[in-house]
Every structure is written in C-alpha cells, then in structure tokens.
Amino acid sequence: MARKKRKMPGLNTSSTADISFMLLIFFLVTTSMDTDRGLARQLPPPPEDETQTKDIIVKERNILNIRMNSAGNLMVEDMDGQKFVGLKEIRSLVKEFIANPSNSDRKPEKHAEKLPYFGDVEITKNHVISVQNDRGTPYNVYFEVQHELIAAYNELRDEISTKQFGKNYADLNDDQQKAVRDYYPQKISEAEPKNYGGKK
Amino acid sequence: MPEMNTSSLPDLIFSILFFFMIVTTMREVTLKVQFKLPEGKSSVLEKLEKKSLVSFIYIGAPTQDLQAKMGTDSRIQLNDKFAEVDEVQDYIQQERMNMSESDQPFMKVSIKADSKTQMGIITDVKQALRKAYALKINYSAVGKMDD
Questions:
Q1: Structural domains counted in chain B
Q2: Could you tell me if residue A35 is inside a domain?
Q3: CA dist A5 to A9, A139, B18, Å?
Q4: In a domain? residue A30
C-alpha cells in the first residue's frame, strides 16, 4: 500500500469577506468622527483675598462695555454713550473699537511699541472689552457674543497679517503669529456676575 | 467570461476594518442630560486636541426618562451622575490627580451646555473652575460652514 501524500484541501474562505464586512459595518455605524470643537477661553485666576477686591483703574476711553440682560438683549456702552445693538452689529463695532482707525480720542488710546516684523507701530494695547451678563441670560446669547468677539479679533489679525506678510494669520510661523498677537492682544474681561434689577 | 479573482477581497475589507477599529472611540459616559450645543463658525472655533487632557462638564435638562424624578431644570452632570455646583471643584481636583504630572498644566475643561441654559448656572460653574485653578476652558459648540 503505497502511502500517497494527500494534499490538504484548501479551506473555504469565501465567507471571510462576509464576516469582515459585517464587522466593518458595525464599526462604521458606531464610529463618531466628530472632533470636538469649541470656543477656547482663559479664565482669570481667583482673587487672592476674598475680602479685598482690587479695582484696576482703566481710562474711560479704553473700555467697551457689552451688557446682556435676561431677555437676551444687548447693550454696548463706550464714551459715545449707550445703545442697544443687534448681534450682527457687534463685530464691526468691536473691530472699530480695537483698531481705532480714525485715531479718535473717544476710542482707545494708542501706544508706540516696537514689535518684531512690524517695527515701530501704534497699538491700542490698553483696550478692554468688558462683558457682563445677567444670571438669566440664555447661554446661546452669551456664547454668540463671545463668538463675535473672537471673530472680530481673528478678522483684525488676518487683515494685518495679509497686509504685512501676504498670508492669513493661521499660515504664519510661530514668531510671526506672536508678533501679530502682540499687535492685537486679546483683552476680554468678564465682570463678576451681577443681577440686574432682578428679583428672583 | 473568466471569474474575477476575489481572493484579496477579505484582505482589503480587513484593512478598512482595522482603520475604523482604531479611529472608533466609544462613548465613555452615559449622558443623563440632554443638550443642544450652540452654533458657531468653524473658522472661529478651535479643535479640541488630545482628549486625555480634557475633562467634560455637561449642563442641560435631564433626559426624558429622568425628568419625572429630577424635574426639567438644568442640571450639571459630572462623569456618570448629577452633581451640584460645589462638587465641581472636587471633580476637577480628581481629574487632575488622574493625569500624569507633566500633563497637569495643560488641563482643559470643556463645557457642553445646552444653548437655552441660563447663564446663572454656567457662571457658578465658571467661578468654581476659577477656584480650582482650571483656567483653560472651552465652550463646546457645533461648527457651521462659513457662508
């Protein structure tokens, strides 16, 4: 009896594709590709001493107050007085306030600074945008105001980057970005919470 | 017509499978509050990178099935359970302890709050975060295409 070497029959793999398809579909369905996005903000450190509140005196022309009430209405106050505004107007108002293109003496004062890449420039480095909200303000109003503020800064930074380097702010290298950030420093202050004429 | 050779099909599918297995992140917490995030332009929003550095705080009304028990007022959710404002500080402290020491200065807190929440509760959370020295925060939002 001659032992013939029997050839092992090939494993039937035709269903492997189906099995892996099923797995694939499972993972396809469960995957959430959403990357979290959001507005990044930096909070001020807590007051050192609760009892002693230090008031920093800021010149009136350097402050832009943005107030929100519990109905979600917005009010902007600068040296030219108070006015009610819509959300859409905030960005242009803020941009004009920060940049002070007309060198108005009712807008933030300019300081001569020497910045890398830019040389001697005049910037409104002491401006402050103060955001105040009521406890009843809806979150989306607050969020949208913050959004507009950041967008205003971004637009200004993009404008100056395009003028100086011919590129958008995001495409600059780190040193250039830092120079642009120094040109338009972000100064958003959030006042301690208040209750405006609110009896709860 | 000769049959097409499909022997490499499983390999192809497997490699796609592995790709999805790797990018999949399973949700770690079960949400007990429901929220609709506010909307912002994608160009203004920043991406949250490095998930390991981020702690989440959820704020919103309890989900439908919990409303009978908890009411419909906005609540804070930390990890898997409802919490009060004064627990936020402990939560941050705990999250910080769980991080490696070199990562601790880069800790970020993402606030996922419903767009209709009143600012009062969010202000309270913000004050608690200040006290806990968790100063880098991120208001989570849905990105919209620019128009």
A1: 1
A2: no
A3: 12, 78, 39
A4: no
Q: Is B117 on the interface with A (CB under 8 A)?
A: yes
Report if residue A118 sits inside a domain. yes
Q: pLDDT tens digits, residue range B32-84?
A: 888 888 888 888 888 887 777 888 899 998 888 888 888 888 889 988 888 88
Query: A62: which DSSP letter?
Result: G
Domain holding A76, by residue range, is 60-190
Q: Residue A80 corresponds to which tokens in the numbers above?
A: 């030219």
Contact A36 B140 (CB under 8 A): yes
Instruction: Tell whether B144 is within 8 A of chain A (Cβ).
Output: no
Per-residue pLDDT tens for A68-104?
888 888 888 888 888 888 888 888 888 888 888 888 7
pTM: 0.78
- The tally of domains found in chain A comes to 1
- In b/e form, how buried is each residue of A33-61, taking b as 16+ CB within 10 angstroms? eeebbbbbbebeeeeeeeeeeeeeeeeeb
Q: Is A101 on the interface with B (CB under 8 A)?
A: no
